[in-house]
């Protein structure tokens, strides 16, 4: 009996000795998180909380003026401009996200081959991505100038004599913004796809060749499944990135012609900084943030279902 009682006490004592070690490990983990949590709280969490509080008030440049509860949200949902600018944002997603992903994948497939100067070519395509949005926008503002722009000059050399108003004609303006954005961001998409391609084992392609699979069959059966995780990241990132469109529109078109290129982010900017309605702008931001979160949740649900 005595031996039994001693054996029962030993695990308890061991657990007691392990508790300080366990707590010390948790404390170390918290200390490692502090360098991340401090800037996250200051620059992300607190502005969101502050913006949510502002959205419940009439708030101008001089500060809070009046508490209005959910009145700002009701005005947003009753405003036809909100739906028009929201559609403009989604329209740009439909134009830009597929084109930049397809172009990035094609470039990655080409550069992944053993071609001459492929490192130089990869650097050339990636270089625009290091530029700021303002620099990119001013470059394309000059390139697409209706009178003196190189794009129209090249079209004249091909026999098209009309001066196309790329940035003032509603038929072409969205394509002009998409072209500038694709040129700017395709290098980043290409690099991610290239990294994914290099993770696919080469012996899979060799086995497919032995079985008689042609290039298209190898791409469909090996390459695309091997890039599935990268593709999910690309789709998610590009949708969110396109929804945040602002700089290109602000510099290249100013939201014109008319309001045809006004997006949600520019709508929020104009409401807050041009109309001095920061409470309303904060409410618009909250609504738009909720929409983007909803899109993210739907996308994750769809991808999880496919994985299952």
UniProtKB/TrEMBL annotation:
Residues 86-299 form the ABC transmembrane type-1 domain. It comes from Paenibacillus silagei. It is found in: Cell membrane. The keyword Transferase does not apply. The lineage of its organism: Bacteria, Bacillati, Bacillota, Bacilli, Bacillales. PANTHER family: ABC TRANSPORTER PERMEASE PROTEIN, INNER MEMBRANE ABC TRANSPORTER PERMEASE PROTEIN YCJO. The keyword rRNA-binding does not apply. InterPro entries: ABC_transporter_permease, MetI-like, MetI-like_sf. Belongs to the binding-protein-dependent transport system permease family. Keywords: Cell membrane, Membrane, Sugar transport, Transmembrane, Transmembrane helix, Transport. This is Multiple sugar transport system permease protein. The chain crosses the membrane at residues 29-49, 90-111, 123-141, 172-197, 218-240, 277-298. It is a multi-pass membrane protein. Pfam families: BPD_transp_1.
């Amino acid at each position: 009996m005595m031996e039994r009682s001693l054996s029962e006490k030993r695990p308890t004592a061991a657990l007691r000795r392990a508790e300080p070690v366990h707590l010390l490990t948790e404390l170390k983990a918290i200390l490692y998180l502090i360098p991340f949590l401090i800037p996250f709280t200051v620059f992300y969490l607190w502005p969101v909380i502050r913006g949510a509080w502002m959205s419940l008030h009439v708030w101008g440049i001089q500060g809070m003026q009046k508490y209005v509860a959910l009145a700002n949200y009701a005005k947003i949902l009753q405003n036809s401009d909100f739906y028009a600018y929201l559609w403009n944002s989604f329209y740009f997603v439909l134009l830009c996200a597929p084109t930049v992903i397809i172009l990035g994948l094609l470039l990655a497939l080409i550069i992944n081959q053993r071609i001459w100067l492929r490192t130089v070519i990869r650097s050339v395509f990636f270089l625009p991505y290091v530029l700021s949005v303002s620099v990119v926008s001013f470059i394309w503002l000059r390139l697409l100038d209706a009178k003196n722009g190189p794009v129209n000059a090249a079209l004249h050399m091909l026999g098209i004599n009309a001066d196309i108003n790329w940035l003032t004609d509603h038929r072409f303006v969205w394509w002009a913004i998409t072209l500038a954005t694709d040129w700017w961001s395709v290098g980043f998409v290409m690099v991610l796809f290239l990294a994914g391609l290099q993770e696919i084992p080469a012996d899979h392609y060799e086995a497919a060749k032995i079985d008689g699979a042609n290039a298209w069959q190898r791409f469909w059966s090996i390459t695309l499944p091997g890039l599935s995780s990268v593709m999910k990241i690309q789709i998610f990132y590009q949708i969110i990135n396109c929804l945040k469109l602002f700089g290109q529109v602000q510099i290249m078109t100013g939201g014109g012609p008319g309001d045809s290129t006004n997006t949600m982010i520019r709508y929020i900017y104009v409401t807050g900084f041009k109309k001095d309605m920061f409470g309303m702008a904060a409410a618009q931001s909250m609504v738009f943030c909720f929409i983007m979160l909803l899109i993210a949740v739907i996308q994750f649900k769809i991808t999880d279902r496919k994985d299952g």
